[in-house]
Amino acid sequence: MPSTDHVPAQALGLRARKKLETHRALTMAALRLVGERGLENVTAEDISAEAGVSPRTFFNYFATKEDAVLIAYPESEQRAEQSARRLLEAPPELGPMEAVLVMITEDVALIDENREEWLARFAIVDEHPALAARIVTGQLSGERLMIETIARRVGMDADADLYPALLHGVIGAAMKAAIKLWAHEGGRRPVAELIRASFDALAAGLPVPAATTTRGNS
Amino acid sequence: MPSTDHVPAQALGLRARKKLETHRALTMAALRLVGERGLENVTAEDISAEAGVSPRTFFNYFATKEDAVLIAYPESEQRAEQSARRLLEAPPELGPMEAVLVMITEDVALIDENREEWLARFAIVDEHPALAARIVTGQLSGERLMIETIARRVGMDADADLYPALLHGVIGAAMKAAIKLWAHEGGRRPVAELIRASFDALAAGLPVPAATTTRGNS
DNA sequence: TGCAACTGTGCAGAGACTGCAAGATTTTTG
DNA sequence: CAAAAATCTTGCAGTCTCTGCACAGTTGCA
């Protein structure tokens, strides 16, 4: 979202700017070191040193070592609320899936804009499946909030109805599969295109083989 | 699956039987303690003490503290391979989703058979979303292997085609949503029924609101 | 300028998890 | 059946993640 990239640096004030810089330095350091040595051969201390801050500061920015790799932008909590709001405000005539598509388009564009960074990130995620769950579905994106928002949009109960949780999970799966393919292709096609392909497959009821493939096939 | 519950205890030998007992003692201890105090207020040492083994032994059985709550049965690795085999051996005329349904039916039955235990487990998972991902989708079920198996069954490439990873993720989401509802209902309906409802919704292309709800509605 | 609000850092400490080697048990073998 | 092989349990030492706390340095603002 805009708050980091689109806002002119000067509008932020020195303090906020420094914070962004430190966050960035840490994620970049994490990305590089982990990319080279693997997650288990890099300590939080290594990353801190590489970024030029104390280990204690590292944990002021990230709750876990993994987060340094996964969280590309700060303010992830507010981000979840913004997303929820955007989902509710999407044109009422849109079905839930279309509304979600609208909601995520903005965020997904950032991936294409920083291709190298995200390719590095997903390369790491690919080698550590434990991270994959966390990045799309996990609490990073505010699972609970998102399910409730979906429920409200379609007028259902987040707990007593199957649909809201099902849709939320399915959307996460679609994004995960799309992004995995995006990375496998080296980021040649825009992410949004692949996500749309996933959503189309979903809307069509997951038709069997060749019809879904976005190219000819093997 | 059969290997633990269905095999007469005497056919296992003393050593194997003791191992099963210890595993069971640990998971039950973990389930109870964590259920009472919450995951963060229970240490691996607590669980070990409760189960009557040394802390070191705890980590001989589980790689992480969380696994003690999540892994209901041992041999999880072989289990993944068995599932893969079952998926390939399912009647060829079945579509992928039906084949998966057949594959998981057997495992899912165990949930209904041990309702209380699984309700306790899911109650914990519900409070710790980080666990949710791991239990269905994560490496616990051999993500990579499963995607490749799906790919083989439909004659596609696990990496270059969208479908296999998409189907795998979507199935995981369907199971997760179904089980969440199952737990919310206190296990009144058989899990298989709810999973079937999820799969039906998927096959129908995630039709919007009221049609999916498995009851009337709110 | 001077105070209030942050941010960075060191320190101490709890807890997760691992490798190693000794001791106890079970299974296998001859 | 007894000795050897295979396994399992455990204690120990040690690394690493992550947290609370207190203090020092900066930045924002009146």
UniProtKB/TrEMBL annotation, chains A, B:
Pfam families: TetR_C_14, TetR_N
Domain HTH tetR-type: 20-80
Tree of life domain: Bacteria
DNA-binding region: 43-62
Transcription found in the keyword field: yes
InterPro entries, sorted: DNA-bd_HTH_TetR-type_CS, Homeodomain-like_sf, HTH-type_TetR-like_transc_reg, HTH_TetR, MftR_C
Parts of the chain that traverse the membrane: none
This protein's UniProt keywords: DNA-binding, Transcription, Transcription regulation
SUPFAM superfamilies: Homeodomain-like (SSF46689)
PANTHER family: HTH-TYPE TRANSCRIPTIONAL REGULATOR RUTR, MYCOFACTOCIN BIOSYNTHESIS TRANSCRIPTIONAL REGULATOR MFTR-RELATED
Name of this protein: TetR/AcrR family transcriptional regulator
Organism expressing this protein natively: Allokutzneria multivorans
